[in-house]
Structures are given as structure tokens and as C-alpha cells.
Amino acid sequence: MNSIKNIIDLLKLEPHPEGGYFKETYRSLGEINEDNLIEGYEGNRNYSTCIYFLLTSDNFSALHRIKQDEIWHFYDGSPILLHIISELGIHSKHVIGRDFNKGETPQFVVPGGYWFAAEVINKNDYSLVGCTVSPGFNFKDFELKTRKELISMFPDKEEIISKLTHQ
């Protein structure tokens, strides 16, 4: 079994602003012109991007959102509990893993514009996933608000927001 440090070293992962570690593994050469994107995008976007994303039970992926749909692919370790808060403030939970008999799914799509966060289910473990975004990811499309800002948007979700934000 690989240690967390070994996985980080072998895959050349770096700390991610929302928590965990990542490495971009694919960025299409082709681009979509800004004129052909839906409203809200500034500049051109690659057709698609993909990353490795590693979380440990010592950290979590803080609530954030992007404009694009994001497809999560499970690779190794503990299942992940993915929390989503829709634009209407509806909180849902989804388990990404490979124990299909327990209702886990190896792939899940987070709709663009929804707030989402993830945590490792098993204690003293890690989760290695991949995330694919189309149109391709750009940090201009990434939004990470403070705990206070999110609670003001979704006051009835204070408990889960407090758990899944860093500040």
C-alpha cells in the first residue's frame, strides 16, 4: 500500500487552495472562443482539463464553486463524501467510491454554479480522485468564499458551512 507522502511524491501533487493536493494531468490544446461560451466567462477556455486530487482524513476540500460542471472519478483509498449546496440552498450528499452494493458511485457530476466540498469518509486514510472540467478549468471561474459570506447566503446551512470552510 502506498503512503500518502509516496502518492504525493510519485504523482508530483501540490497543495490546492481549497484543501488537499492536486496536479493538472490534461489540458486540451484546442480552445473555445469567449464568444462561443455562455455568459459569465472572461476569455477563451480550453475544451477540457483534468486533475488528480488527493484528500486525507486530516483535511477536506472546502466549499467552493466553479462555473463549469465538474466530473469526479474515484481511483483509490477511502470513499469520499461530497456535499453540494444548490443555487436554491438545497444540501445533498453523495458518496464517491467503488462499493456499489453500498450505493457508492465511481463517478459523479457536480453541476456548474453549485457550491461543493468533499471529505474522506474513513479515519486515517486518503482518497485519490480525478476531476474533469469542461470547458476547461481556469482560476477565473473558481470562487471560494469565507464562512461568514456563505452563512449569510445560506443561513439555515450554518452547521455544514462551518464544518466545511477554513475561515
Task: Produce the secondary structure layout.
Blueprint: H1 4-11, E1 14-15, E2 21-27, E3 31-32, E4 45-46, E5 49-56, E6 60-66, E7 69-77, E8 80-85, E9 91-96, E10 107-110, E11 115-120, E12 126-134, E13 142-143, H2 147-153, H3 158-163
Antiparallel strand pairs: 1-2, 2-5, 3-4, 5-12, 6-11, 6-13, 7-10, 7-12, 8-9, 8-11
Jot down its keywords:
single chain; 167 residues; mainly beta; Jelly Rolls; 6-stranded antiparallel sheet; 5-stranded antiparallel sheet; 13% helix
Distance from first to last alpha carbon: 34 Å
CATH structural class:
Mainly Beta
What's the shape? globular
Estimate what percentage of residues fall within beta strands: 35-45%
**Considering the protein shown, what is the CATH homologous superfamily?**
Jelly Rolls
CATH topology: Jelly Rolls
Give the total of beta strands. 13
Query: In total, how many domains does the architecture comprise?
Result: 1
The gyration radius over C-alpha positions equals 16 Å
- Report the average pLDDT across residues: 96
CATH arch. level architecture:
Sandwich
Structural class: mainly beta
H/E element order: HEEEEEEEEEEEEEHH
Q: In terms of per-residue confidence, which ranges show pLDDT below 50 for 5 or more consecutive residues?
A: none
Count of individual helical segments: 3
Biggest sheet architecture: 6 strands, antiparallel
